[in-house]
Specification:
The chain is of the alpha/beta class and 473 residues long. Helix content is 52%, strand content 8%. Helix 1 runs antiparallel to helix 2 and helix 8 (184-204) packs antiparallel against helix 12 (267-281).
């Protein structure tokens, strides 16, 4: 398999160190607090039904005991992490990729890079979420539990104002639908606005990177006006929007498929739906969209199949979003119409979740692995074959494309993605929240460094990177 000519980032690097010392412990503490609150509620409920429903009281008691054991395991993990202890084998929990994670951990052990401060950052972060998964899976009453679901839901609820505003904007396109489909220039303007919408809301709604953000902060950040997006375009350090649009225009009226490799749930997934809806409903370039989730809770806020389904039902609910004076009856109606169309697309197979296609469950396992994506064709050949038939594959905010390797910033994007280059038309939309960054002019990077800007990790800057698929003669 491909080996990058540069070493991976590890927790001794500034961003990685901050992750191990601060961010991961906060995430673990939040899980402990969440489970503790659930146990408190279960204890009260058990007391209330003790006489009227003995069986239920016993089940609640068993679940409470298991929950206490989970808290103990996570507390122990937090202790070991802070003291740079060795990473332990993922316990066998009847779920995916246990052998693969442990085999990689054995290789790290042989190289003496198997502690929390010496393991490659990418492996360690993936390992952390797989281990958390195992802690819950080992308990009868907690198997499959998502410890981040409440966080994802609360953040989504606080997005109501922007969601309704975007719904109205999309509704206004209806009157221009016929004109738009025959006017590539107008479609290009809208396409670039969609990209910017997706870019900047990635950085806002990655919950693994947020510790404090109030509803008012969110509303302030969610400026969807044209002026705000024009101002933000100056923060795109690599901009292949023109190149990807040139590629898309060659796909007209061919019934092509778009594949979305999803990142964050909630509002970001909503914007992904909007983008997909735009491309299917208002352009002649795509007739189907396949959405690729993670199979289990991942990096706090990544989309799972459950999140995907809940997003549609939540958006269709008239009581999901808290009352907001900025939301009009018209915008609420516009949202209902738009999401009803999405549900119809799902029912008709125009919008498809990857786990629902043939061999989709097996193909989706790859996204929860600890590997760079450049190993796809060796480790998940069926997935690689599937994506090779796509008109365009959009990756949302995933540094695993470049392997979290210490590439020089001027490295070509096609070099950094290794054997994946040319396998299929690939568009990466990424806000900079980790050290790895490629395809950037060295002088630009040096200027930002001299200003003391943490441009690699702040989420203030972004990369729009495109590489076409190979032309088959």
């Amino acid at each position: 398999m491909f080996q990058a000519p540069y070493p991976p980032y590890d927790p001794t690097d500034p961003a990685g160190y901050d992750t191990v010392v601060k961010r991961w412990p906060i995430i673990l503490t939040n899980i402990i607090d969440h489970v503790h609150r659930l146990l408190h509620d279960m204890t009260l409920e058990a007391q209330q039904v003790r006489e009227s429903d003995v069986s239920k009281a016993e089940e609640l008691s068993k679940k409470t005991t298991e929950g206490q054991e989970i808290i103990s395991n996570i507390s122990r993990l937090k202790y070991r992490m802070a003291r740079d202890h060795e990473l332990e084998n993922i316990p066998e929990d009847g779920d995916i990729l246990v052998a693969e994670y442990n085999a990689e951990l054995e290789s790290l052990n042989q190289a003496s890079h198997d502690t929390w401060f010496t393991a490659p950052w990418l492996y360690a972060e993936c390992y952390l979420y797989r281990l958390i998964r195992a802690y819950f899976n080992q308990k009868t009453h907690w198997r499959g539990f998502d410890p981040f679901s409440n966080q994802k839901e609360e953040m989504f609820k606080n997005s109501g104002a922007a969601i309704h505003q975007i719904a109205t904007t999309m509704h206004e396109l209806e009157n221009e639908k016929v004109k738009l489909q025959g006017d590539p220039d107008k479609l290009e303007v809208l396409f670039k606005e969609m990209i910017q919408m997706c870019l900047w809301f990635v950085c806002i709604f990655d919950l693994s990177l947020l510790t404090h953000l109030s509803p008012s902060d969110i509303e302030h950040l969610q400026t969807v006006g044209k002026e705000a997006q024009e101002a933000r375009s100056g923060f795109i350090l690599k901009d292949d929007q023109g190149a990807v649009w040139s590629h898309i225009k060659t796909l007209a009226n061919q019934g092509k498929r778009l594949d979305f490799v999803l990142d964050n749930a909630g509002f970001e997934l909503f914007t992904d739906f909007v983008f997909a809806d735009f491309l299917v409903t208002y352009t002649p370039y795509f007739s189907q969209v396949v959405f690729h989730p993670k199979l289990f809770p991942w990096f706090v806020s990544d989309v799972t199949p459950t999140d995907f389904a809940n997003t549609i039902s939540s958006l269709l609910s008239t009581t999901f979003f808290p009352p907001n004076s900025a939301t009009s009856p018209d915008s609420a109606a516009h949202l209902q119409l738009m999401v009803t169309r999405w549900k119809k697309y799902i029912d008709e197979g125009i919008f498809v979740l990857a786990t629902d296609i043939r061999n989709g469950q097996k193909m989706t396992e790859f996204w929860n692995g600890p590997w760079p994506y450049w190993n796809m064709n060796e480790l998940a050949p069926e997935l690689g074959q599937w994506l090779s038939g796509s008109g365009l594959v959009i990756f949302k905010g995933d540094l695993k494309l470049a392997g979290d390797v210490k590439w020089p910033v001027s490295t070509q994007f096609s070099t950094a993605i290794g054997p994946l280059a040319g396998s299929f038309p690939l568009l990466s939309l990424r806000t900079n929240k980790a050290d790895v960054a490629v395809g950037i002019d060295e002088k630009v990077a040096e200027s930002l460094d001299k200003k003391g800007e943490k441009w690699r990790v702040s989420g203030k800057y972004a990369l729009v990177s495109f590489f076409p698929g190979r032309i088959i003669q």
